[in-house]
Structure formats: C-alpha cells, structure tokens
Design a protein that fits this description.
This protein has 634 residues and is mainly α. The chain folds into 4 domains: 146 residues, no CATH class; 131 residues; 156 residues, Cytochrome c-like domain (Cytochrome Bc1 Complex, Chain D, domain 2, Orthogonal Bundle); 157 residues, Cytochrome Bc1 Complex, Chain D, domain 2 (Orthogonal Bundle), CATH 1.10.760. Helices cover 45% and strands 2% of the residues. The strands form 2 sheets. The protein has a two-stranded antiparallel sheet. The protein has a two-stranded antiparallel ribbon with strand order 3-4. The protein is globular and about 80 Å long.
Length: 634
C-alpha cells in the first residue's frame, strides 16, 4: 500500500509538474511543432509522388501546399541549418565547388528548382520533378532527426525570428525566393504569422510594453500583406520603414530585456551579423572584420592610420611612382574613372577598378572572385608586373630605411619583435580598407526614420529596384552587392552576358571566372562569363561600369538589363544566369531606379588623404607624391 501511495503521489507530482512546465516551456513546444511540421512535409511529398501523372494544376496545388508548410518553419531551418536549407530551397543557379583536385558544377535543388520545372505547363518534365521530390524526402528525413536530437534554445528562437525578418527584406520580398510564381507576399505573411505565434508563447517574459508593441506590429504587418496580393503593388519602402524595421528593433530590445544570452555570448563561431545591432539597416548590422582571415581580436586606430598612409604611399612600388590610390581615388569613391585601370594592350585581362567603400562586406575579391582573402588580393597588387612589380623583401627593406615608418609600425604592432614585416604591411592596409564603411546615405537615413522626407521618385525607384526591376535579387540589401544573406558566407557571381560595347552584338571576350580554370577544366562552360556582383552604393561616382568599363552611363546599364542581358538582346549566350525576359521598364521607371541608386551615396569620412608621407634617409625618395605620379600610356 505504501508503494502504491508513493507511486500515486509521484504520478500526481509528475502530472502537476508537466502541467506547470508546459506553458512555461515554449522552446519545447516550438521544437515539437517543427517536428510535426516536418512529418507533415514528408506526408506532403509522399502524396505528391503518388500524383506524378496528374495534370499540371494538381502539381501546382501540391507545390503550394508544401511551400506553405515549409515557410511555417523556414525561420529555424535557415537559422540552424543553412546548408540543408540550400537543398530544400536554394537559388536555381548552379554554383561552383572547388578543391585541390577538381572543379565541378554543384546543381541546385529544392523548391526554387521545382518552381522552374512547373513554370511552363506545356514543358513539364515529370522525370526531373520525380528526382527533386526524392531529394526533398532525403533532406527532410535529415531534418526530422535533428529536431529530436537538438531541440532549439531560447536565444535561437529570438535570433532566428530576427534573422527571418532580415531574410524577408533581402531575399523574400525582392522575388529572389520565388522568381517564377512571385509568391513573395504570401510567403512573407506566413513567416510573420508564425513569428507572432511562436513569440506569443513568451508573453510573460521580458519588458511587457515592448512585447505588446512587437505583437501589435507583427499583427499589422500581416494585415498589410493580406491587403496586397500583387507582387508589384506592395510599397516595400513603406513596409520596411514602418513595419519590418520597427519589428526588428522591438524584437532585439525585448530579447535584451529577457536577459537571455545572445549569439556572441554562446555561439562557438564568429558570424557576420552582430547581435547588438537592432535591424538590417543598422550601420553596425554586419561585422566589417568577419571575412578577415585570422579574425583579429583587436584592431587599433594606429593600425588603421598606418594602413591609410601605406595605401597612399608610392614607396611600396618598385618605381616609387604607383600606390594603391593610383587606381583607387578617394574623390571617386576609390575607383579611377578609367575604362580599365591597366591598358588592355598591356594586359588583355585588365578590368575596371571597383570602388572600395564598404569593401569589407564581401566574401570574395577581384571581378572573377578568385580570392577569398583581402590579404591575398593585396599581395597580388604587390607582385603584378603592371602594378607594384616588387617583392616582399624589397618592400620591407625600403620601409626599414625610414625612422618615421619604424615608429608608426612599432606603435601599431608593438607586440611584434619585428614590427615591419610583410604580414603587418598587408594587415595594416587591410584594416584601413575595412574601415572605409559608409552606410548613412539619404536612403538609409529615411528608411531608419532619421529623416522624414525623401523624393517620391526615389521611393518609386527603390520599390522598382526591390520589385518589378528585380535588381534586388542579385544586389542584396543592405549592402546592395552580391554578399549573400542571411549568413554572408560568400559573394555571388552571375553571368549576364556583358557585351563588348553597349550596343554591341557579341559578348565580351573576357570570360571572367572561366579563365581561372580553362587550362585544367576546359569543359567548365557553366562559369564562362561569370563575374562578381558588385555593389551599387556610391555608383554615381564610379563610372564607367561593368568589368570591361564599356558602359558609360547608368542609363546604358539599365537598358541592358531591361532587355534581359545578352540573350534578351538576341546574342547567343546559353550560360547566362540572368533571366532573358524584358523587364518592361518605362523610361521614367529607369530614371527613378537611377535616382534611387544615387540616393545610396555616402562617402563621409572616407575621402581624406594623409597629410604627410614619412621621410627616408634617401633624399630622392622624399620627393615622391601621395598616390604617385605613374600614368599608363593609353
């Protein structure tokens, strides 16, 4: 009897404890929901596989059912398992996988690929669809195990929902995520709906005023999206400014008020997004040192100052006539205004000099994306025959002949036994480049509600850029380059079929990334003509445009895109990843997009050259000019 009584008491306590914990254990409730949703997705795939021989309309219904269900959990899949997400809903463009042995085409899979398969009813390929569904099932089984083995943590739930709003602004509402069916508004509404439901489970946590305001904005955002059913009709600028950015600010502040840890306090690896930043367009949203090899724990003002002097000093070149600033002029947002910085007659692979402001926010460098390391990019300039044409030994030995440089290096790298070294020279230049960040343009300030008025043409241009014109599907907010959100692990390359001249009828003979591999992999045609997607901030100062500098005006650039690249202009270029369809932009719409791009200009605190160059014991060297005097014969 005593054992029975103990058992009854224990059972009652267990029931009472379960009843007490259940409403206070939202992370378990959300994890359980994700498990159930994954089971629902598996069932959806099974039902779809049984209907492979059904009409197109049946496939479209299956697609919508599956996608709606997936979007209800994408927030956590994207946050926790980005590589798995690429297999479930990655972009439909092939990517490149390289190692020391092989280069191969990594074909995309998932919902966006299926969307393209279903895009043309008459051309439906059920065999290809069958393969994609089988792969979906394999990846969902992996996901199913993960929810059981690794339940979500509280901080992950908060951070994942914050990141999901960024994803909506940078990938979702631009059409990147649904290029054929343009389901962006419907998808975003589902994501926000489940953010509201999941966060509602934490209603007794943190600051109640912030929580209530957050829930109110989440509700209002859904109402706006329900009212706008057409992709092109949504006023994205208004929606970002008055709904999504406030939601992110409230969510972050409310998270802080709960006193739960942030990613920086618990994450094992550094990441691009900084947890203290309030929203996507916060000037501190991305860590400018995230892609720096070695991830320095401390970057000093003395290192940046030294790097700035080295950037402008022609002492680094063999001729003493060329510096980094010879091709990257501060008054041109650190571009040079030339078609190519080095004449084509000296180097047939010579390319246009890009601007360097906000250069920290990218994962790959050079037009052909050949370097994942800015430090390595600097070394290329040192050694290139048509640039500095020098060696590490020559550079270090020269700098050691200046007492001023010795003091500057000692101050910047005081912990080093030998401060003047190749590594420290490159690091100083790199940290200077990573300090050239300017994200306070007129458009930024308006979006952050720091100013109340902006020209209606700019708003219209921004909405076109992020919507109908499809610019935002490659130039991702907030940097508006190819640095891929929301994890910022790589810079994207595209094949748009740049012509040899604006009104030409053939593609430029510089094939970009392909030239890196053509000797060993001549069949790698899928990357022929691939170039990095550049940033469009400060674009009004960086003409001429494209890697070959053949487009003199933004109007020419816009006309090229409006026609659908090379294919759209009737030039045969099957590798093209840019959609060949016309954008059907009017002349006024093109001008409004250009006005918007101009509104992204900000060069504040980046254009001041150093006031002196260090002196040397060799008096001839002291006659050198800042940025150098070398000029190519064009």
């Amino acid at each position: 009897m005593k054992k029975i009584r103990i058992l009854l008491v224990t059972t009652a306590l267990a029931i009472a404890t379960f009843g007490f914990l259940k409403p206070n254990n939202p992370k378990l409730e959300i994890s359980n929901r994700l498990g159930e949703t994954t089971e629902g997705l598996l069932l959806s795939v099974n039902n779809w596989q049984k209907d492979l021989n059904q009409p197109w309309q049946q496939h479209k219904m299956h697609y919508d059912t599956f996608r709606d269900l997936y979007k209800s959990m994408e927030t956590y899949v994207s946050f926790r398992y980005p590589e798995l997400e690429k297999s479930l809903n990655g972009g439909p463009v092939p990517s490149i996988v390289t190692d020391v042995v092989i280069l191969h085409q990594d074909n995309p899979h998932g919902l966006q690929v299926i969307e393209e398969i279903l895009g043309e009813e008459a051309a439906l390929d059920t065999s290809e669809l069958k393969n994609e569904l089988a792969l979906l099932r394999v990846n969902l089984l992996k996901l199913q195990k993960s929810w059981k083995q690794f339940p979500l943590k509280v901080w992950e739930i908060f951070d994942a929902n914050h990141q999901s709003i960024s994803r909506i602004m940078s990938l979702g509402l631009t059409g990147f995520d649904s290029p054929v069916f343009l389901r962006s508004i419907r998808d975003s509404r589902i994501i926000i709906e489940y953010a509201q439901k999941d966060l509602q489970l934490f209603q007794n946590w943190g600051n109640p005023n912030l929580f209530n305001a957050l829930q109110d904005h989440l509700e209002k955002a859904q109402i706006v999206l329900k009212a706008e059913n057409e992709f092109e009709d949504l006023n994205r600028v208004d929606f970002y400014r008055n709904y999504l950015i406030p939601i992110q600010k409230m969510l972050r502040k409310w998270h802080f008020s709960t006193e739960y840890e942030t990613y920086e306090e618990t994450g094992a690896f550094p990441r691009a997004i900084q947890s203290k930043a309030l929203h996507l367009f916060d000037t501190n949203y991305l860590n400018p040192f995230f892609t720096m090899r070695g991830k320095p724990s401390h970057v000093s003002k003395d290192q940046i100052k030294l790097g700035k002097i080295l950037f402008f000093d022609p002492i680094l070149s063999k001729s003493l006539q060329m510096s980094c600033a010879s091709c990257h002029l501060p008054e041109r947002a650190f571009s040079d205004g030339k078609i190519t910085s080095i004449p084509k007659k000296l180097d047939d692979k010579a390319r246009n000099a890009p601007g360097l402001i906000n250069t920290a926010y990218q994962g790959n460098f050079f037009w052909d994306l050949k370097s994942e390391d800015l430090n390595n990019q600097i070394m290329h300039v040192f050694e290139h025959a048509n640039e500095f044409n020098t060696t590490p030994e020559e550079i270090t030995q020269k700098l050691k002949q200046s007492e001023e440089y010795k003091r500057l290096f000692q101050k910047a790298f005081s912990s080093f036994e030998e401060p003047i070294s190749l590594g420290n020279i490159k690091s100083a230049i790199e940290v200077f480049l990573r300090s050239l960040n300017a994200l306070n343009s007129p458009f930024d300030r308006y979006l952050r509600s720091e100013t109340e008025v902006i020209a209606p043409e700019i708003i219209n241009g921004a909405n076109l850029f992020l919507g109908k014109a499809a610019c935002g599907t490659c130039h991702f907010a907030p940097i508006f380059n190819g640095f891929v959100p929301p994890h910022y692990g790589e810079s994207e390359g595209e094949i748009i079929g740049v012509l040899d001249k604006p009104n030409g009828n053939q593609v430029d003979t510089d094939w970009g990334r392909f030239h890196l591999f053509e000797r060993n992999y001549p069949n790698a045609d899928f990357i022929k003509g691939m170039f990095k997607t550049p940033g469009i901030r400060n674009i009004q100062y960086t003409a001429p445009y494209m890697h070959n500098g053949q487009f003199n005006t933004l109007s020419e650039v816009m006309e090229f895109y409006n026609h659908g690249g090379a294919l759209g202009k009737g030039v045969n270029w099957p590798q093209q990843t840019l959609a060949p369809d016309s954008l059907n932009l009017t002349n006024q719409e093109i001008q409004d997009v250009i006005r918007f791009m101009h509104s992204l200009s900000d060069t504040a605190k980046t254009v001041v050259r150093p006031f002196f160059l260090p002196e040397f014991s060799n008096p001839k060297w002291n006659n050198r000019k800042w940025k150098g005097t070398y000029s190519f014969d064009y």
